[in-house]
Amino acid sequence: MVKFGNIEIMFGGCNVSTIKDGRGSLYSWVPKEPILEFNLVQFSKSKIRGNHYHLEFNEYILIVDGTFSLVTKDSDTGEEIAMIASKGSCFHIPKGTPHALVASSDATLVSFLTKPWDECDQPIFREALVPQDSDYNKYAEQQGFVYSAEELKKE
Question: What is d(CA 138, CA 135) in angstroms, rounded to the nearest whole number?
Fold first, then answer.
């Protein structure tokens, strides 16, 4: 197992016969636990999602298009660390692991959760790893929240 901070980098296996038959290829990743929700997440270039951690579920991320910087904290030192991730990269993000993704291009990923978001008492906890841009901060202020629209659900 290869780790980046507390995040596990998952490697997809490929059945070679899917390449040999000329139709393309088929890659598979096997999660450690059942997936109960998945979400298609689209990013505009230079935008940030994350800056949080989850206590009620583990998250798996599969990048399907584009390139990101994945930011987390080193599990030994607590220092922020970053790596580049692109199409085909897959990660297991355990409960309590802070993470943020910064899109280097327009990009798409699928987020897989081990508990449905709407069944969580508090699905996210804020941890500022990467500052949001001024456009996002203005939008948040206009909508009446600081970090995430999830704050509005608590009222």
Answer: 5
3-state helix, strand, coil in the chain (%, to 5): 15, 40, 45
- Per-residue pLDDT at 150: 66
Q: Is the pLDDT of residue 31 over 80?
A: yes
* Segment (H or E) for 142: helix 134-143
Structure token digits, residue 84 = 């580049």
Report whether pLDDT(2) > 80: yes
Q: Which helix (H) or strand (E) holds 135?
A: helix 134-143
- Counting the structural domains of the chain, the total is 1
Within a domain: 59: yes
Here the CATH number for the domain that contains residue 61 is 2.60.120.10
Model confidence at 13, in pLDDT bands (50, 70, 90)? very high
Domain region containing 113? 2-130
Q: Which DSSP letter does residue 94 get? A: -
Angle (CA) 40-62-71 rounded to 5° is: 100
* Residue-averaged pLDDT of the chain: 92
Angstrom CA distances, 142 to 46, 102, 132, 147, stand at 21, 23, 15, 12
